[in-house]
Specification:
By secondary structure, this protein is mainly alpha-helical. The protein is built from eight helices and no strands. 65% of the residues lie in helices and 0% in strands. Helix 1 crosses helix 5 and helix 4 crosses helix 8.
Length: 201
């Protein structure tokens, strides 16, 4: 089913996928905890253990298509001092975590190339960079229930919020529809290019 190169690429992508998903969710939990919501910690999500965050289907999607998801972090906005602002900060934390990972890996690859002379090392660092960029680009799309949709909390009138919460409940069907239509590569391409430019700067 897979050629030799494809199988090697797939195997090298597994730890990159596990890290990208785990650190993304950990960043959500960490920021929520710092802003006063202990729910993620009480639910065992303030951890770098991948098993606490893994959604098998979402991880497989990320592995194969370079966009996917993990189990969402439970957050209770009643504990936040400024719920609208703090929900946005928690949501953006995962994206920032992925971009930070990609930036560090890209800088290592450029500044210490001697570390990545073997095909395996080059494949691993490339997977770390682009899987994290892909996860960040996917999650910043303003489509519920993705993280980027929370940016709308800052601009939506209060009387629109009930409709927005209703849309969030059925957002997964919207995502699946867009996925089947092949829309995501078109939406993500400019974001991936922008994020790649940032991390390789």
């Amino acid at each position: 089913m897979f050629g030799r190169f494809d199988m090697m690429e797939l195997l090298l992508s597994v730890p990159a996928v596990l890290w990208a998903i785990t650190f993304h969710e950990y960043c959500h939990a960490f920021v929520a905890d710092r802003l006063g919501d202990r729910t993620p910690a009480m639910m065992g999500r303030l951890t770098l253990n991948p098993l606490a965050h893994l959604d098998p289907i979402g991880a497989l999607m990320l592995l194969v298509f370079r966009f996917g998801w993990a189990k969402p972090i439970p957050v209770n906005s009643r504990y936040f001092k400024n719920p609208r602002r703090d929900i946005v900060l928690v949501s953006l934390a995962g994206i920032v975590g992925n971009l930070l990972t990609a930036f560090i890996c890209a800088q290592l690859a450029m500044r210490v190339p001697s570390l990545f002379q073997t095909p395996g090392a080059r494949g691993f660092i490339t997977a770390m960079i682009y899987i994290n960029i892909g996860l960040a680009a996917f999650n910043i799309l303003p489509i519920p229930p993705l993280d980027g949709s929370k940016l709308l909390y800052l601009v939506l009138p209060y009387n629109w919020m009930n409709g927005f919460h209703w849309l969030e409940r059925y957002g997964m069907f919207v995502l699946l529809g867009l996925m089947l239509l092949g829309v995501f590569p078109i939406l993500m391409a400019p974001l991936v290019s922008l994020f790649a430019w940032i991390v390789f700067i």
